[in-house]
């Protein structure tokens, strides 16, 4: 029953992933349309700023999500530390925790910088785009970020349930 339940949950998660990937493709198409429009109306240096921001948006959000996920796994491992855990493993977990915490703080700084750049890009686009087009741009940025977060969350859940299923299947003779 447990194996069947895990397989069912995985099937649901795989279907959700397909939906999100479809939404991501639609978002990418809107992004391409927006990019063409921005290129048509902006000066070359302004367009370059826009493109750098959009490229960095995905990188910074992905970095933050990755670091947060890795930090959460280390914190979970640290909670499982008990009297039987050797000192070397405890030290290793503490060092990884410190390193990942520092890296996540650095990534948060990058995100704050990215937010400032977004305001600059938004100001540039406000000179050229209609209110509706500007809303479309902002919705695109928001959707792109949301989809990245949803994708990462789903991948983590799928990985977790696949590991659970594999462990369970190996434990049954």
Automatic annotation (TrEMBL):
Classification lineage: Eukaryota, Metazoa, Chordata, Craniata, Vertebrata
GO molecular function per UniProt: actin filament binding
Entry-linked InterPro entries: ASD2_dom, Shroom_fam
GO CC terms of this entry: adherens junction; apical junction complex; apical plasma membrane; cortical actin cytoskeleton
Keyword Secreted attributed: no
Family label: Belongs to the shroom family.
PROSITE patterns referenced in this protein's UniProt entry, alphabetically: ASD2
Record localization: Cytoplasm, Cytoskeleton
Primary location: cytoplasm
Protein name: Protein Shroom1
